[in-house]
Amino acid sequence: MKKQTLIVASLFVLVLLFVGGSYVYKNANHSVSAEKSAALVRPYAYVLGNPNAKTTIVEFFDPACGTCKSFYPFVKSILKQNPDTLKLVLRYAPFHTDSYYVVAMIEAARLQGKYLEALEVIYKYQDKWASHGTPNIGLIWGFLPEAGIDIDRLKEDLKKPEIDALIKQDIADTKTLGVNATPEFFVNGKPLIKFGKQELEDLIKSEL
């Protein structure tokens, strides 16, 4: 009898510890610290939505990441529903093989005013150029004209050192912020603690 009582008491304590720990964790302030906040948003970063919106989503993404591709229309839909109060800041975390060069293509396309066009075409054909862990970014050249991009100019712009510097800064910022997977979201400086579309939507709504 005593043994059973001891087991029940132990289980009760464990449940209490779990519930208490979950409550403390959920209610703790997980926001990016002040000294690291500069790494969240850089002046050069591409912004979607209202630039003056009070709520800022920062997304670190990799164009070869399938989950990033699936979140892209989802986040755009939320932006469309909140055109005045929300903005999305796009940052790079090129973790996959050769993603660095794909990111450079997007930035070079931006110099032609074709940032989103390039990104969307690259996502559209992601299963072709980034399939089965054996990326072939050479295929992307054949897709970019669909976005109205001047390929000759793009190849010249890729040589510009500011593009290289920008990507390196983003990579440095991923290290500062502890971003090690994509997509990674922050909403008004608060990271997405539990990953998921519903969780992201809930976090955004809590900050609107």
UniProtKB/TrEMBL annotation:
Signal peptide (from-to): none
Pfam families: Thioredoxin_4
GO MF annotation, one: oxidoreductase activity
Gene3D superfamilies, A to Z: Glutaredoxin (3.40.30.10)
PROSITE patterns reported in the protein's UniProt record: THIOREDOXIN_2
Taxonomy, superkingdom: Bacteria
Keywords: Disulfide bond, Oxidoreductase, Redox-active center, Signal
Similarity comment: family membership: Belongs to the thioredoxin family. DsbA subfamily.
Protein name, per record: Thioredoxin domain-containing protein
Organism the protein comes from: Sulfurospirillum diekertiae
Lineage per the UniProt record: Bacteria, Pseudomonadati, Campylobacterota, Epsilonproteobacteria, Campylobacterales
